[in-house]
Specification:
The protein is of the alpha+beta class. It is about 35% helix and about 25% strand. The longest helix has about 35 residues, at about 440-475.
Amino acid sequence: MSEIPAKATESEDPSDGAMNQAAEAAAPGDAMWQSSPPGSIYDYIRVASFSISPGGLVDQWSLRAEQLFGIPAARAVGMDPIEAFIDPDLRERGQRKMSEILDGREWTGVVPFRMPDTADGGRGEEGLAEVYVMPTRTAEGDKAAVCIVVDVRTLRSIETDLAASQAIFGQSPFGFLLIDTDLRVRRANERFASIFGGTPDDHRGKGVHDYLPRGEAERVSATLRRVLETGQSITDMHVTGHVPGSEERRHWSVNLYRVHSGSGRPIGIAWLGTDITARRAAAREAAAARRNLALLNEAGARIGNSLDLETTARELLDVVVPGFCDLATVDLYQGLLAGDETPPGLADGSAELRRVAFASAVSGAPFAGSGEPVEVGAVHHFPFNSPCADALRTARPQHVPPEEGGLVQSTLAVPMVAHDTVVGLAQFARAKGSEPFGDRDRDLAVELAARAAVCIDNARLYRREHERALILQRSLLPPGDPEASGLDIACRYLPGNAATEVGGDWFDVIELPGHRTALVVGDVMGRGLRAAVAMGELRTAVRTLALLDLEPAEVLSALDEIARGLGTPGGVQQATRTARQPRDADLCEVYLATCVYAVYDSVTRRCTFANAGHLPPVLVEPGEPALMLDVPPGMPLGVGGEPFEEVEVELPEGALLALYTDGLVESRDHPLDEGLQAFVGALTDPSRPLEDVCDHVLNTLDTHHGEDDIALLMARVQGLSAESVGDWTLPREPRSVGRAREYARGQLLSWDLEPLVDTTELLVSELVTNALRYGEGEIRLRLLLDRTLVCEVWDSGLVQPRRRRARDTDEGGRGLQLVGLLSAAWGSRRTPRGKTVWFELPLPGAEAVLTDPAEALLSLF
């Protein structure tokens, strides 16, 4: 046998290229090789052995050699080693490698060989075998050798796989652990060590208790045992812990799966952990942003629905507790609540405040905030050096230190700023166990407080306007229960609440000459101070027109022109010009109003109605059901261009007449017709006292008070009896003056009004004389007794009497001056057939003091 070279290396091997190609093409663990489940490292590296006898021939051939080279032992034993496993085509190269195999030295070299033919008869691929020759001696002392042969291609593949596995394990951006069956770290990679410190070897033998808090460690240990016992993998298990030596909290997403040996025996658990701390923080930030946006949206929808200061403050707390904090309070400046023109603003922070709202989602003592607890409704102030006073003073939010032993761990004092003005302070607190307030929370608290502050400031401004309008509105209504001749009157006025503003509803009772009464109910369309002002102007105009003793239709026609001029720059002075505008003129610059105007004569019990788009009056006759009078509706005041009609109705004694505004019968919850029918149905017993009837109506109807103003005017007819009226017709002749005095004297004596006889005779004589001189037709004298004495002289002349000042040399012209001196009131009015001149005298015992007729006569000269 030729001598084997001392050392052969891969660099010397001319077959390196072929070896590498073969190594790249081969796959470890061929089916032919794995006849049984692998159980040792030798199963993976494809190693075989044989021995060489002193004669240089193969004398032992292992089963693995049979599998590796495809040569049975029976044929290989006794063969030259080169001939045994090297293909004839490759023997020349192999011969150079193994020329001398038994020279007594160890030798390692790479020799080519041919793999066994494939199962389908194909020729086996060329391979490389690394041969390790270990010299030995027989029992007789002869040289022999034991050879170990390794498939180089398989070995290289395993080395590549191991290198790849090592690279994946060591260079992975994820924390990788191999945990043994005792739940101890067997191996850790660089990424895990970079987070927890030290080198990978420093973590060997550690358990989960070394990395996690006790409770979390117990949970994770139980999960590891379950994976080890069942083989069930765990995906995306979230684990929270602290980096050793730091208070920083870290979060991981962990995947677990059981690892087995080659024989299938569980050898541990693979732990693949991803640090999701940043991702969790980003998720929390995104969730917080979504939550804050939702909270702001909710605040926009819920705060400011009321124009009440206290309600708006409570709406803020309804939004923030418990969605943003656990406890909260709102304090507003006392001056603001008292209606001061200018709130304190950037004061020194020690001004008086009133606690208007408190909310809590936790049980315990009342929230003190800064200082002692304050009850809702109490007036208090913050100490000058307190954080709350500082927040009010600087208009910037402040953190309030928690009280020792209290239930609160974090408090924000946030000034409520609207239009650069501080109106109050909101305090938001979180109890122990909740997350403390951060910068994002502070910004959100400022935004929430600012939104509420704007609503509160708007409510303050509106309350001021509402109160002014209410004062104006009430000042324009009749004081108390008005009185009228021949009528028992009761009225109710309920202004709208702060949410619906003051409206333009009004009513009036105007006494007219001849014991007549004008009843008025109206409603200016619109809300607020402007509507109240327009209502005041129309009411004043109605009273002025009523005292001119115009017919109801004429009064409404004049009011229509006035209403059309209210919305123009020139006001009422532009009424005539506005009336000339085309009918399709823009109505947005005029005030529209509805009105019912009625004139009741207590002598005849007749009532004349005219309507300008208002709801019809309701009449209840004794023993009859209530009914709505058929009064032509007419157009609202301010529209113009349409005449108004009149309707005259005789009212029975004891009848009940009701005038009202739409707030009594109209609501968004039911139609108008339904409300009208309910109102008519509520007037079931007109004989009851009028005050009781009014209360019964308001308590029975579903008025939904607060949606609109409500005005209700009710009058019971109590006409003058025949005994209270003296009525005579006198011919147009001089003797009628004396008769008139006689009729007046006799009537007054029958009424036991002797103290008024002289004055009445004198004034009646003057008026009848004027009718004879300046009037036309027959003369009518009428005396009316009610709360006062009224004397009327009628004639057919159209010329109205005019009072003038007589000169010292004039023989006449002093009659009307005398009437003005001796009477409580006097005047004249037109009638369908002429005019009436009247005067009024208070009854004896009244506060008015009558002037002596003789003194009055002397004063005229």
